[in-house]
Structure prediction request, 450 residues.
Amino acid sequence: MALNIMIVDDSPVMRVFLRKVVQLTGLPVGEFFEAGDGEAALELLKGNWIDLVLTDINMPRMNGEEFVRELEGDEVLRDIPVIVVSTDSTRERIDQMLNLGARGYIAKPFFPETLRDAVEKALGSVA
Amino acid sequence: MNAGDFEKHFAPAAAAVLESMFFSETAGPCGASHMPGDLQARVAFWGKVSGVLSVRVSEASARALAASFLGETEESLDAIQIGQVVCELANMLCGWIVSKAESKCVWELGAPELFSAHEEESEGTEQNFGIEHGTLTLVLCLGVIA
Amino acid sequence: MNELVIGVGDGGVSGDPEAVLVTYALGSCIAVMLHDPVAHVAGMVHYMLPESSDCRPERELRPCKFADTAIPLLLQAALAKGADKRRLLVYAAGGAQIMNDNSGFNIGKRNCLALRKALWKFGLIAHAEDTGGSLVRTVRLEVGSGRVWLQSPQGSRWEMIPRRGAAASSREESPWR
Prediction:
């Protein structure tokens, strides 16, 4: 079954990078949905089935922390696995996002295989 | 906290960012080598200490880095893509440095932005590293918000 | 078993399930290996240097000598032999820092960076790596089973195990769909 992946990052080239890593997992990807901030991501989630979200934290309008809080507050959306991909590698931030419900946290910069492994683990855990 | 608390992280940040996502390396510290066509990006940060980190690379270096990052040939890239990659480079370098320097604080990064070499440059702490086709320059200005 | 020796700056592919691809004495050089477990196609290349751009004549004559020409050539050869890119498992070994490398260029590390750059460019990602350090490695790839074995000069032997998440092997209905 094809998997729909959402990528939330205000950098267009970072979204390209993340998309490429997901494609290299070999998982059956259906569609990619992309948003430049949390607000746009929430709008897309209203009308589309998403199997995995990769989100940055530092974004305009609605940042990643607020976005993940919104997901956790929704009965349906809270079950979507979220992996945070952010430049913030402080222990405090990592713990905060994991406590908010993120399934994984990848600090930028990262090796593509590290994200590949996290994506496979997040999707494998709900199979 | 002062500039030195940030500056000591410049070299490891450059190495970590370039090696992992740009598949590239620095040749170590070197002298400044600035040219008119260089690309520059800056990122503001707010935490216990606030400031701006700016990054400067030659057009040839930027093109090579962008090609590596995107997995494309240099000839296929346009100026917009290259500029966006330089912004993301600045974003990751700033995030890495601030994460280390302000590891016990809550902080935020602003959106990276390209800026012109004609704009007045603030004085700050500068380091230069040799990279493919030129130099990577990092300049940190504390207490200044772009 | 039919042993196919891959020399320094050389490469080869095989669809013979009885074959074993082997390359010896990987110092700063890197062996890149591809295996399609369904088509039973395997390939190996043993490259020496990261970039071919400064060596135009040699890049034409000996493309397997350089990472940026060896890896796409290996991929092309494996696909021509019947491999499917989506099924390929990718292994890499070597890239050591050799004690008598006084050049200051650390060819082993540069070869490791060139490996990652080329894999990324050509849409591949390593499933197992045994690179860096100072060990000189010999590596064997069994075409039939896809198993990859490393050996040190002292004789110790170990297997490279590919990283494959559960999600990559079988799919079941997600509970909320």
